[in-house]
Amino acid sequence: MYLSLFEDFDRAGKYAWGAAALAFLYRALGNATTKSQSTISGCLTLLQCWRYSHLNIGRPKLCQVSTNGTFPLALLWKQKQTGQRVKCNLVQYRKVLDSLQPHDVDWLPYKNVNRTIPEGIKLMLILGRSKTTLLCFDKSEKRNPDRCLRQFGIRQPIPQALRVDTEVDTLESPDSSCSEWLKRQDNIVKGGEGADCNEYYQWYSKITRRYVGRHMSLESVFRQTVAGMTKMLELANTLSRDDMTSKNKEIIANIRSTLTKSLKNPIACAEDIFPARSAKKRKQKDT
């Protein structure tokens, strides 16, 4: 889709490629949170380098820590690594993320790299605090830096409520989106002087999901499920069917049969309910 834009190299250099890549990544991250999505796309190198810079989770240990002379900053992580990287599975990563404290995050990882960044780019860094719309072909994503001011070294107040704008998301109003982008220098978010961090934390804890891992182990969930099914079967067995219609009797009989079968062999029952997924797992196990 984008290759045709390189027909004129002089013109291609004037496009906001960074903003387009970020818009695409925002949309991909949003899609990846849905249950039906099993993959992710976008500029994952950007996401990975951001994570390496801010979070010491699975971050490679480099031979050279200094960032002097390294630009773009992502090249820092191409250096030779010392020792072997620690291998963690998904559950371990989730546990580490859930145990993070504010002091475990490097909020300002780029504060000492001014000598590395070219002057022309350094003058444009203020646009990182622009509340605007990012565009990438048919994708349009709002950028709200007022919700992450701490990354700019600014105290974080409670931000304004987000305005859901379906027209912008679907680019039904491209003119307004482009107009907002052209005015990005006029929409720089100011500092949060006098912001109460405790007040913000209380607000944030009410509107977010604080943990990415499971609060209970799969074994505990399984035991609770079996206990619930056992209780349901007991209730079904105690129901009087004398005054029931034939249809209701058939429904109760089916419920009892399903519960009995599930309690005898819950794994086999799961395969009956999710045949495609179970067959896929068996195939992976066989190979």
TrEMBL record:
<dbReference type="GO" id="GO:0010073">
    <property type="term" value="P:meristem maintenance"/>
</dbReference>
<protein>
    <recommendedName>
        <fullName>Aminotransferase-like plant mobile domain-containing protein</fullName>
    </recommendedName>
</protein>
<dbReference type="Pfam" id="PF10536">
    <property type="entry name" value="PMD"/>
</dbReference>
<dbReference type="InterPro" id="IPR019557">
    <property type="entry name" value="AminoTfrase-like_pln_mobile"/>
</dbReference>
<feature type="domain" description="Aminotransferase-like plant mobile">
    <location>
        <begin position="1"/>
        <end position="204"/>
    </location>
</feature>
<dbReference type="InterPro" id="IPR044824">
    <property type="entry name" value="MAIN-like"/>
</dbReference>
